[in-house]
Amino acid sequence: MTAPGVPVPAFERDLDRAALRRVVSDLAGRPAVWRPLVTIDAERRRFEQLWRDEHLDVWVISWMHGHDTGFHDHDVSQGAVAVVAGVILEERLVLGGPPVARRHEAGTTFDFDASHVHRMRQDSGGAAISIHAYSPPLWRMGTYAVGADGSLRRASISYAEELRPVDAAA
Amino acid sequence: MATIDVHQHLWPEPLLAALARRRREPRLLRRGDGWTLRMHGEGDWPVALADHDPELRLRALDAHGVDRAIVAPSVPLGIEALPADEAGPLIDAYHAGIAELPARFVGWAAIGLAEADPRALDELLDRGFAGACIAADALASPADYAVLEPVLAVLERRGAPLFVHPGPSPRTLAATHPAGAPPWWPAMTRYVASMNAAWHAFAVAGRPAHPRLRVCFAMLAGLAPLQRERLAARGGRSVADPLTFVDSSSYGPRAVDAVIRELGVDALVHGSDLPVVDGRDLALGEAVGAALRERNPARLLAPEMSEVPA
Question: Whole-angstrom distance between the N-terminal and C-terminal Cα of chain A?
Answer without folding.
Answer: 37
